[in-house]
Amino acid sequence: MFRTQKYHAIQVDGGKCIGCTHCMKVCPTEAIRVKDGIAVITGERCVDCGDCMRVCPTEAFYLLQDDLSLIGRYKYRIALFPSVLPGQFPDHVNDDQIYGALLKIGFTHLFEVEQPIQWMVEAYRNYHATHGNSTPLISAFCPAIVRLIQIRYPSLIDKIMLINAPHDLAAHFAIESLKGQGINPEDTGIFYIAPCSAKIAAVKDPVGEKKSVVDGIINMHEIYNKVMSIVTDDPGVAEGGFREHLTREGILWSLPRGEARLFKRKSMAIDGIFNVVKMLEQMETGEIPEIGFLELRACDQGCAGGIMVSGNRFLTVERLDRRSRKFPHAANHPPELPFKADVLSRLVLDPIEPAHAFQLGKDRQTAMEKMAGINKLVKKLPALDCGACGAPNCHALAEDIVRGNAALTDCIFLRFKNENQDGNTGHSTLHSLEKIWGAGRFSTQIKTDEHESF
Amino acid sequence: MGIEQQYTVKGGDFSHAGSASSHVRKLLKQLEIAPEKIRRIVIALYEAEMNIVAHASSGIVRIFLEKDAIIMVLEDQGPGIPDIEQAMKEGFSTASRKVREMGFGAGMGLANMKRNADLLEITSTVRVGTTVRMTNYF
Hints:
Chain A is of the alpha/beta class. Chain A has helices at about 20-25, 50-55, 85, 95-105, 115-130, 145-150, 165-180, 195-205, 220-235, 250, 275-285, 315-325, 340-345, 365-380, 395-400, 410-420, 425-435, 445-450; strands at about 10, 30-35, 40, 60-65, 75-80, 110, 135-140, 190-195, 215-220, 265-270, 295. Chain B is α+β, with helices and mostly antiparallel strands.
């Protein structure tokens, strides 16, 4: 399977984007450029980590997801949600109220995705037993990390464990459980309330899988708000069921060391995409840690720091830790069920192919010429990394120029220097700046007035 | 056409060691060279860089990138290697205790370079320095 990486869940609202440089500067894959006054994302490079959304001062990024009204099309409406959803609510809101409110929103069945985690644990252990020679095995749990490795660290692809994430396990588990109750899968809609952009992309356009089993993605912020208003109106709303297979290990799975704890001291857990990048770079240079398992998560504090998680990430971790202690350990939960083997077989991912998003040319000769070109250009540029050219730094501009996507005159410093030498007026400089930062950008400050608080 | 890069390596500067190999790795990735080939080049270069850091007072790394090969020349001012053949053996190490305590000097350096470089040539003069020349084909 070859993934072209065209799809990404994060989109820019041109009406809200003020074309500042915040997102462009933090993007870990240099996927963003400013053109015509708005941020443009290169699909091939975007890993959907969501860091751009975090720093945006005008909330100009939005996620491709489905409308909640979509659930109305199905007779049975299953909400799949990660434990970080209940983990966000203030202490006075309890599990029963959250579950009650979710039913009131319109779902008929609720399924916290980390429920059948013991089966996942078994899948990990089996994989480790048969692939022990390519350690450290890297978890495929965080889709942003899988994509990052796919486009930027292809030499480490063979370390990715080809095992699907808990939401897929939960979806298959839910379908099979309902089948057992005589419910036809044709009548069921499975809706995933995702904690982040990367999980959305993973469901909409999965890597290592032909098609995801999920029917729709619902915005977690929207669900959070709805649950909060329902429990505020009616504190008596409650539902005690749907949690029979929930375990301590399951609740902690998406938090730091949630997976790594299975492998005890022979594991390492790293959260935060820049921390992960450092480790992957080191591993590519041959400094491979002598451990069996690597848990890598793009968000600081794992999924508690997901871009769609409303609560404070540290409080969410603390609450989930407290909550987990009320549940039993995972061993023997869920019990052996007749559909276990079938569900486990569906967790196996296809081999992941590298997706070259950074190579310079089709053949090595062209690529080398371009590389020599970049080296030359970088020496001419001022090394300020100011971003005024619409690229995140001088090196990125040089790369854009040799790829034919930018011109040396996009650098305002070089242009200023040239014009002083040639005796030209500043008119063309303004014109070129307006092409990057939008017409009228430098005559008024209307767009930024509304955001003085930033 | 070729691309040339030059890096200086300071003896004893373990905290910055590996910058040449890390940079070369980034360059090679942009040329769409097979990951396994990149891995071997980078490991060989990293080991050679580490040898300068661990043993020499300073050194220069020169990289010549050609269409079908990369040539890596590392020249250091250092103690030199009295018996190259012996130094090539796995486990042979002259690293000081200080260096070993830092987790280096296990005697795998030259052996690793030999395993990962397509061509490896070492010339050395005791008390003057060592020159390592490695070539890997794409």
